[in-house]
Every structure is written in C-alpha cells, then in structure tokens.
Fold this sequence. Notes:
Layout: H1 2-18, E1 25-37, E2 47-49, E3 51-63, E4 68-89, E5 98-122, E6 127-149, E7 158-162, E8 172-184, E9 187-196, E10 215-226
Antiparallel strand pairs: 1-3, 1-10, 2-4, 3-4, 4-5, 5-6, 6-7, 6-8, 8-9, 9-10
Amino acid sequence: MKSKVFYFLFIIGCFSCLQTIKGQMIIVKGGLNNDFVSRSSYFENSDFLFKTGFHLGVSVNIPFNDKYSFEPGLLFTTKGYKVNDRIIQKNSYDDPGRVIEFIMYSDLFYLDIPILFKRSWNVNENMKLFGAVGPYVGIGLFGRNGIENTNSDEYPVSGCSDWGSNLYMSSIDAGVSIVTGVSIKRCSIQLSYQNGFSNINMVSGENYSDIKAKSRSVHLSFGYTLGKK
C-alpha cells in the first residue's frame, strides 16, 4: 500500500512539472470501456463476455510542431473480465450428473499511465484528425474476483475475494495503446484499444500453468482541452 501511495505522489509530481512546459495543453477526458482478457487454453470451452466499465483522467499534450506531439496521461480505469462456464455435479460414479452454469467475473481498478506519440492532420480551421500510439503501464489500486451460479439454487456456487487477501491478480499491467479520433475546437472524441502484454494472473501450480490472462480494453473517450488552442 505504501508503494502505491509513493507511485501516485511521484506521478502527480511529474505531471505538475509537465504543466510548466511552454505550449502544453491539458486534456480532461472520460468515457466508457469494453474490458476483457485474452483466452488461454484453460478456458478454451468457456464463453468470454465483454465487461462494461469506465475511465476518467487527464493528459498533457506537448507539441513538437503543428503535426507531431507527445502526450502522457493519467487515467483511473476499470479492467477485468466476465466468463460464462459450466460444471457437472455428480453424486456418484454412475450418476449422469447435473449441469450447473455459473459466471466468473473480475472487477479491477487501475491507474493507467499511457505515454503516446501523436500525429495530427488539419481538416479545416476548427477540425483535426489524429492518431497516436505508445506504451502504457497500469498500477492496480483495488478490485475483486467473484463467482455466481445462474441456473441452480439446489447447488449454490458463489463467493468473492478482494485484492490484498486471496485475489491472485497482478497489481502491475503493461502493454500498448493505439488511438484514433477527431477534435473540433476544444472538444474531442477518440476510440482507443489497449493490448496488454503482461500476464495479470498470479495463480501458480502444475494444474494452473495454462491459465493466462492478458488485459484487453476498447475505450470510447470524450475530451475537452484546457489552455492554449
């Protein structure tokens, strides 16, 4: 917990320094996510679902010229997954069994730090198209995993675990962000895709070696630019 506080204060300090750079612009943004994770062989017969979430934060646009700029950001964002799965409950060897369907889910909250390199194209005096790409690092703040059955009251399957107890999920995520969008005067709308490279699953053991979870996320963001434009 102390390390997370230190990272947070360090990041805030870096962003405070960036605000002193001449010509920089601050962009306040927020929007919706569709979050999921990559499928490993352990879940090859499972039905993965998109999990709707949100993000909110700021970025600092530092122009090199009228076409290229550098844009680090700070986003509070959800991540996680939702999986439909099933098990067969048997009372004896000869019992044909009963199918119990259940949902496994993971609600995770991260502080993401994207570092983007941006290219803009002027459409007219007020409109620009832009694209950006760059790495991101995510610091896990809090979250939980859970499981709930959906078709059986006789054989209940339920429970959850919080981060910091027995939630076997990594608190560090890293990957690449790809962004495209349009800005009109001070307002902007963008679509971005995050592709995580690191395995955020921390379950270990011989029977769990195939469980890999790499975060994926599609963001729809709306922004407003402060400062000079």
